[in-house]
Write a structure and sequence with these properties.
CATH architecture of the largest domain: 3-Layer(aba) Sandwich
Distance between the termini: 20 Å
CATH superfamily of the largest domain: Type I PLP-dependent aspartate aminotransferase-like (Major domain)
CATH class of the largest domain: Alpha Beta
Oligomer: single chain
Low-confidence stretches: none
Order of helices and strands: HHEHEHEHEHEEEEEHHHEEEHHEH
Number of helices: 12
Largest sheet: 7 strands, mixed
Radius of gyration: 20 Å
Structural class: alpha/beta
Shape: globular
């Protein structure tokens, strides 16, 4: 039996009627840009994230870029972030004219190491971007403390609905940062039928600026206070996401059950480490990512028996050719580089059957002779 890394068709089969009805409402209304479906989704995401404001935009990359623009980050500035993440995080820093400055990750969570932040912060530093990788929040309270008053952007593209216990209370992804950013790329736990993104904040002034920046820098048609962007979340995507949002909690719970199944099945295998979830965190498992010996051989084996997998990410950002101008060399961030050699992600989507889970387990255990 083949098991894909992700099966969106299986998800669609369970929600087709509600999603199609929501989309057809937009089609019948013939109002496709922003409007009530977007506003309704923004209110729902703000409530989920325990924030005062949520502002939709075209995609998760733009969400990061717009966040930096709202914080007046640009040429001559530096932004500190992790080298072990999707390219968009550092790409957006470059594209606002600032310089990405990398600092290493925590070996267990794969998230930015707050203890390493201090050495990376310089007079030119204007913000820190902490990424919640694979569905687990970064230690946001420690990042904020280490940032010492600098704005913190939480790249929560992979963690909508995740939470972390801070000071005895649950804090939702995006809530404790200056600005939190989400992606609705189809593979995300809450994914659209195309691109989409959102920014959340507790700050009224920043929210107004973000709303203005997403529509060419003007709140009144044909009048522009600044040069902004064409980065609007369209009503069709908002309708899809709104129909799916009510199931997000149950989908994330199913991912946690699947992760627990794998954890038990893979216990005790030499050369394999299951995900380490911080005791303070409740992960949404956007990915189930192992550290393994002979990673490339394992992936080839899984492919040969029809089991999907992926490597997130095979080359740390500081070693990407496009960032050669930053001057980093191999060995600069050993934990990030080690993760790039060892990680592999397995199917974790909510619709997996026990038979499919067993196929994955048998494939991995068989490779290691168990």
């Amino acid at each position: 039996m083949s098991v894909p890394l992700l099966d969106l068709r299986a998800q669609h089969a369970t929600i087709r009627d509600s999603v199609v009805a929501a989309m057809m409402k937009v089609v019948d209304d013939q109002a496709f840009i922003l409007g009530e479906p977007v506003e309704r989704l923004e209110r729902a995401v703000a409530e989920l994230s325990q924030t005062t404001h949520a502002i939709g935009c075209a995609n998760g990359t733009d969400a990061i870029l717009l966040a930096m623009r709202a914080l007046d980050i640009g040429h001559g500035d530096e932004v500190v972030t992790t080298p072990f993440t999707f390219f968009a995080t550092a790409g957006a820093i470059h594209n606002v004219g600032a310089k990405p400055v990398f600092t290493d990750i925590d070996a267990e969570s794969f998230n930015i190491d707050p203890a390493a932040l201090g050495a990376a912060i310089k007079p030119a530093t204007k913000a820190v971007i902490a990424v919640d990788l694979f569905g687990q929040m970064a230690a946001i309270e420690r990042v904020v403390e280490a940032a010492a008053g600098l704005p913190v952007i939480e790249d929560a593209a992979q963690s909508i609905g995740a939470r972390r216990r801070v000071g005895g209370k649950w804090v939702m992804a995006g809530a404790a940062a200056t600005i939190g950013t989400f992606s609705f790329f189809p593979s995300k736990n809450l994914g659209g039928y195309g691109d989409g993104g959102m920014m959340v904040t507790q700050d009224d002034t920043l929210a107004t600026r973000l709303k203005r920046l997403r529509v060419h820098g003007g709140m009144k048609t044909y009048f522009h206070e600044e040069v902004g962007y064409n980065s609007r979340l369209d009503a069709l995507q908002a309708a899809v996401l709104g129909a799916k949002l009510e199931r997000l909690e149950s989908w994330s719970a199913a991912r946690r059950r699947n992760a627990a199944y794998y954890d038990a099945a893979f216990a005790g295998i030499d050369g394999l480490q299951t995900p380490c979830i911080d005791a303070a965190n409740e992960s949404i498992y956007n990915q189930y990512t192992l550290r393994v010996a002979r990673r490339d051989e394992l992936q080839a084996h899984l492919k040969s028996i029809g089991i999907g997998s992926s490597v997130y990410y095979p080359l740390s950002l500081h070693l990407q050719p496009c960032f050669g101008y930053l001057g980093y060399r191999e060995g600069a961030f050993p934990e990030s580089e080690r993760a790039s050699r060892e990680v592999i992600s397995l199917p974790i989507y909510p619709e997996l059957t026990e038979t499919q889970l067993d196929e994955v387990v048998e494939g991995v255990r068989g490779f290691y002779g168990r």
